[in-house]
Batch of 2 targets.
Target 1
Amino acid sequence: MYRREARDPARTVPRATYIAVGFLGLFYAFIVWTGLVDCHSHPVWGLEMATGLDLSSVRDLGGLRAALAAAERIDGWVIGFGLDHNVFGGRPVDRALIEDVLDGAPAFLRLYDGHSALVTDAALRAAGVTGPRTFAQRSHLATDADGRLTGHLVEHAAMDLVGEILPRPSHTERRTRLVELLSAMAATGLTGAHVMDLGDLDLVDAVARETVLPVRLRFAPWCMPGADKDALEELVTLQGRGGRHWRVGGVKFFMDGTVEGGTAWLEHPDCHGQGTDAFWPDPSAYSDAVRHLHRAGVRTATHAIGDAAVRHVLDTVESLGPGSHLAHRVEHIESVPDDTVGRFAGLGLIASMQPPHTGYTRADRSDEWSLRLGDERASRAWRLRDLRDAGAVVALGSDWPIAHYDARAVLATARTPRGAASARAGLTGLQALEGCTTHAGLAAGEAAFAGRIAEGFRADLTALGLDPVDAPADEVAEAPVRLTVTGGQIVHRGA
């Protein structure tokens, strides 16, 4: 389907005919596809998340301590991101493991999953945090057996206590970084991203007025526990706000946290006895909020990693009736049983998954994710192919900055999942490509004008130096990106 359309660009892409005419040789030198879309990303909020020292290459506690000892200070703080839970080797995440190498400096280190952070005593004191707190969401400040704060801040509300006092880059710095990031994303073939947060719309609008955004951004603001009717109506009012190459479309929920953090909602506890609670203390309140937004015509996306969380979202969508078909989606779906897999297609619930996340696990199941779940649940890791074979729409993304934004890596790991998921069959080359094109269009409710090359559709194109459907996955991961076109504008031209 894709290749037939690509070989007659003048007929199938009339809105971008001038590209075909001006660069006609390109269409025969390499293959042009409809533009690739990252279906789960945080390019604006991620600028804050990916600040400071990149800890993603640290593999053990010794390496972490060495990196922190040599780290540059940002206004007196040590700030880091991308820290793998496996670094702690099964130990509790505790500030006592790192404080002696920091010379008393306050530190804020984001764990790779974005749902927890490790901070030092100096950071807690700077934020005025002296003991446990209670929150409207399932979030907490971890303590040891003696009631001492360990510095492990679990989930968003706890992280915000310290995160809100961190040094902030200037508007000019953030603008520059955003343009650089979106340009780098376009260089991997991306023409669009489903942004799973509200970001900073004023910043985005300012940049979009000054220059062409290389990547289309579709924002989904968060709806958190405790949201009342007025808060829901504010989310409804936000829908459709936008400018050139950006708009608000949808609302993001959280039904749970992460397996490694002990906050994924599981049908049975993990090996530490954790994972038995939903992110919404009253799950029925989540369902009520989804129903309210559904009646208002608002699409929703729900973070649900554990089997209990995914099941609750399925039950909620089922309660909406037939009008919910392809209107709602679930993000992540890291471990679910057979009966859950089979329900997606029938309900028209879209599965949005991030194949690069499989790289944080290990094939021998010695990683924190697998150990917490146990062999049976770890064997159900990232069931991409099972969901597709069962007839579900499967949209693909990276969840940057949790994993790298490179669209080629998303395509490659969808075909050859890593770690605990490596024993399972991956997607075919065509299925992987559909996950970033046609299924991306379905996931955004934009299938009538996005996701393929056809008359009247968006002039978003990605030209690769090989065929991502037929080429081996490892070659796709390194494929030359010859051209990226967003809205008829050339935003990247390769060598």
Target 2
Amino acid sequence: MQKNNKARPYLSLHLIILIFGFTGILGRYIDTPPTALTIYRTGLTCVCLGAFMWLRGMSFRVGWRNVVLLLLSGGVIGVHWVLFFSAIKQANVSVTMAMLSTGALFASLLEPLFYHRRLRAHEVVFGLIVVAGIFIISGQNAEYHGGIVTALAASFVSACYSIINSKWFVRFPNDTVMISFYEMAGAVVVVAALFAPTEGFVQGLGQVNLKDALGILFLAVVCTSYTNVRMIQLFRYLSPFTVMLNINLEPVYAMLMAAALYPDERMSGAFYLGAAIILSVVVLNAWLNNLRERRKAKRLPTQTQERHGEG
């Protein structure tokens, strides 16, 4: 029974990662333009999370200043999703997900700017190796260059969002659903404000048939709202490192599903080599950072004891 209890959170985690990967499949399946798709996705998610909070009697209060900042944070993830869905339209699911896996490394390279720390040597080396992986992919898939650039932009924006969001989770560790609620509202507002002046924006909002509506509903309710709430629950049983390390499998699951569902998603050997290089570096970087944090945590009690001994 104990083994089953331990296995359940891992199975739930991988189900969530599978659902995350399926987001890319839906991005190809749904014909609604990326801006409209993002607005509908985030708007419906906001409604779902708001209903969940109301039914659970959770507080919506966070202060007006924080509300404004959370709305702006949501705008960042909104822009990420517009770029993400655009990349899928420009290239395909496999290329987009391979490029998106660079997000964790982008975050490592951006952290020194946000947290005023030195850039670590292994992060620079890993960054160069990832660039090599990208060149291997782009060199063999010239027709996808536009999609590769857009997907890398989406990955960069996602990394910025993850760093911003980490600060919110430190400030409000028990209010993660509330954070997501306001961020989804912010995504709707910011994406609408940024893209409303562009040609075809209003027409795009009306380009939703029954097939697209069902896809968007699944995307909002299952791929975003359910996974958000369930992921919070899983942190009670799994360490953040375990969760983040396993989430690196999202591009793998997405590429496997894409290849199974769409014959044109079966890429060349060079593509999979480049993708494997990128994924390996991302996983190794996560492992090294975790090892460094564990060693740092072990040193702290020793240093504290030494100070007390000196006193």
